[in-house]
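Annex B. Sample input.
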Amino acid sequence: MCRCFATWRINEERARGIARGFAEAEDFVYKCELLDPQMKAVGDIVRRLGAKNGAAYVVGVALVSYMLSARGERHWFLAAEFAGEDVGESLLRFVRESPSLARFRVARERRARRYLVFFVPRFLEKFEAYASDLRSFWVDLARAVGAKPQAKTVVFAVKMFYYSLRAAGFGVQGLPREIPIPVDFRVSLMSLISGLVAGEAADFRSEARLLRERGAELVRRGWGLVSELSSVPALNMDAVLWLVGGAVDRSNFSRKKVFLELENVVGRSLEEREKRLVEELIWRL
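Annex B, continued. Sample output.
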């Protein structure tokens, strides 16, 4: 039986240690974004469709990216394969046919259609304004799709719009600090393994799934505190947590193998300050 989730709490001492790691290696955060497989897929989409249409498609994909039937990396590779000149047709075909979206297709298609009708025309018209005001984009998108601004897919869509802008050559770096981190399995896993969320998990994977489902607000507050202490936006931290979380998962929670996995992804040995950040993030291994 799972331990009662009411015993979870934010460990403020760990938040300070993680924040020091991020502040010391802030440039590594933005390097990790460029190494993110999602960024590579977004780059392919933007090159094929152009900045505006590419971003419109990417945001639509982000809004239906939940409870996947494949790893996130595979999901975005498939999204790039489905991308075509007609954004609406491509998005709906992706929702109906992608093996990564095998479940909840009716609900996903309903959301995709609402996005295409109530937001895409406005998005294409105000693209340049949104590119320089991501907070307005965030608020308007949430309102258009009828979701809470802190909802995982909404804040994830903000991140993916930001990725689209970076891929298209816009000079953006850094996201609004008030936008929270999208709470998915990997972020939940790293919340536990870093010690940011205190618990006594015997099985990190099971505990991370439960934390994602029942403790998302606590996770958001925890990474919000790290952001406040480090001055690094929480949504920018997501790429680091995703890469490190993927390395943790693939290495089967082996501390030594995590570093080998990361160095393989980065293509070089980690610098000392980067190692210190990773050490903070895998504190419980």
